[in-house]
Please model this.
Amino acid sequence: MNCTRQWGKSTVTAAKALHHALTGTKRLVVVGCPTARQSAEFLRKASEMLSGFQIAPRGDGIHEASLLLPNGSRIVGLPQNEEGVRGLSGVTLLVIDEASRVGDGFYKALRPMLSTTNGALWLLSTPCEKRGFFYEAWEYGGEMWERIRVTAPECGRIAAEFLEEERQSLGQAWFRQEYMAEFMDIGGGFFGRDIVEAALTDELEAVSLDMKR
Model:
């Protein structure tokens, strides 16, 4: 899901995680986030939704950001820490929130958690330049991914007047990234990624240089 800022990505994530956990017994949902604060915010949203079912939220006694449900299912929020995630297994749903801000190492450490369950993988984010696994999956991931894109003009909670102010204040590149869900080259590189990729070819043969005198 490639979405504008303030669309409600974290709320959607919490709703999806809670629905999955409530509709099956002893399921394990893991939500990877860039920071501990974002993990805690995710669990807060999920806890508020859970209260609507007259179920008192409680942790699993192991992870700081977690929920244990009466049916034995768990929801665990993990901040970015490649070493700290190893050991969890049997994940039936893996969600990575703000995926464009999560490092490739953390992502690759999380994926094997799905190996024995054939569980689902959700990536949600606003773009952050043309780099990282979120960009690669969006642009080159092929048919294995279902892609959903939402821009700010498509979000009824964001006023057109506000967007015009942001366009003028941020400039076109930042505005298109933050609100139009476009991957932009704004990191200060000398050449844009599109130019570099256009210069690559598989048609040239490797040349071996004999350095002997």
In short: The first strand starts at residue 2 and ends at 3. Strands lie at 2-3, 28-33, 66-68, 74-79, 93-97, 120-124, 149-150. Residues 188-196 have pLDDT under 50 and may be disordered. The chain has seven helices and seven strands.
